[in-house]
């Protein structure tokens, strides 16, 4: 579906027509679906009884809000990624290209900030689950004013740092391949906005890469440690919980595990594979163009996992349009 050749001094990438149509339709459907599902989750979570998910609902709403931002940024940019001219090339082809170039740049920054923020939120969610289940006497820490203020300040500093790094890691470029339709040879992406890391300060590139790796390993480490602690605690203290509560706790923990693994498999792993193939001159890979077709569904998959595994949210959604009192009295022992 994607091929390339060299025409004199110009590199030419050819895209199959069916691939291009599927790419745009797939991105639009993924964006709309994610916005609807995550919007439903936020609406229904806010309507739940105060005793349902009482220590976790804020984080659940934050995750869905983050997914909405990520789906929006992904949908309006419709980005492609490739390795070209000794650097990482980002091709923005979405509706933002119809406006000024700064609109595409800001949308890309929003995409990066929300993607990295997801890997910060995941360890927080696992640690909170661990405290709620295994250390219930310390749950009040989660509502401590200093903790909340500190978290807000950290989130603000994170966003400012990510914006600064994103702006300095990639710069607009005119040095890019020619993109053509394979069937006709017609040039495409004529209005696209191109960003490249080729001319960027290597310090920012290394810093961004190390920070992303740190976030990933922190997410995986907290996932393994907290999940193991939770499952062992539930098993050892089975007599202290009802079967319904144990099942609910296990399902919610499993949901967090799946939500952590999916973006790594569809976003980070293909990136590492591509770099390995390029740096070792195994082949010129267009892997990221294909994996983005699945990666744009990350916010939708995250929402579906929440709906499937978090009983109060699922029942609240099922109860929409019915007697409102049924929604306000939902509990699950979580």
UniProtKB/TrEMBL annotation:
PANTHER family: 7-TRANSMEMBRANE DOMAIN RECEPTOR C.ELEGANS, SEVEN TM RECEPTOR. This is Uncharacterized protein. It holds the Pfam family 7TM_GPCR_Str. Keywords: Membrane, Transmembrane, Transmembrane helix. The chain crosses the membrane at residues 21-43, 55-76, 83-103, 109-134, 146-165, 210-234, 254-275, 287-310. It comes from Steinernema hermaphroditum. InterPro entries: 7TM_GPCR_serpentine_rcpt_Str.
